[in-house]
Write a structure and sequence with these properties.
The protein is 43% helix and 0% strand. The protein is mainly alpha-helical. α3 packs antiparallel against α4.
């Protein structure tokens, strides 16, 4: 296949598999499993640049502070989803403790998903600033500083 006519990698799949936003091929994290070691250092361990297209990941000092907003939005989306699912499947009532069972279930789900959500928020946040470049082999990576 000609290098110019290569297919574009899927946008959503590249987010879920946590690939570089510029080439959608290089991994954004050194270890693909966020749960291998439960330490913040391991969860956030990223190479300085993409191994495929050389896009710098840490674009400027304090760049990753904005991921808190993305992580919050993801947590709210998950909470709303679990609430609707709980309401449809089990029901919500003021006459028993089902709402409290949902609160406990939701809290446990958010704690268990937190390492994955922290990584996913970085991937999504970076896509606000770096877009896909089909000619990433010929063009220079985007820089801020």
């Amino acid at each position: 296949m000609n290098e110019v006519n290569r297919p574009t990698p899927n946008y959503l799949w590249s987010i879920l598999t946590m690939k570089c936003p510029r080439c959608r091929k290089g991994p954004m994290f050194t270890d693909s499993n966020a749960y291998r070691k439960l330490s913040l250092k391991h969860i956030f361990e990223m190479p300085d640049t993409c191994p495929v297209c050389r896009q710098k990941y840490d674009l400027e000092p304090g760049f990753w502070y904005g991921t808190g907003y993305v992580s919050y939005a993801l947590a709210v989306a998950i909470s709303v989803s679990t609430f609707v699912a709980w309401w449809v499947l089990i029901g919500i009532s003021t006459e028993d403790n089902r709402i409290f069972y949902w609160l406990i279930f939701n809290a446990v789900a958010l704690v268990v998903l937190q390492p994955w959500l922290m990584r996913l928020s970085r991937v999504i946040y970076m896509r606000f600033f770096i877009s896909y470049d089909k000619n990433y082999t010929e063009t220079k990576p985007k820089e801020f500083e």
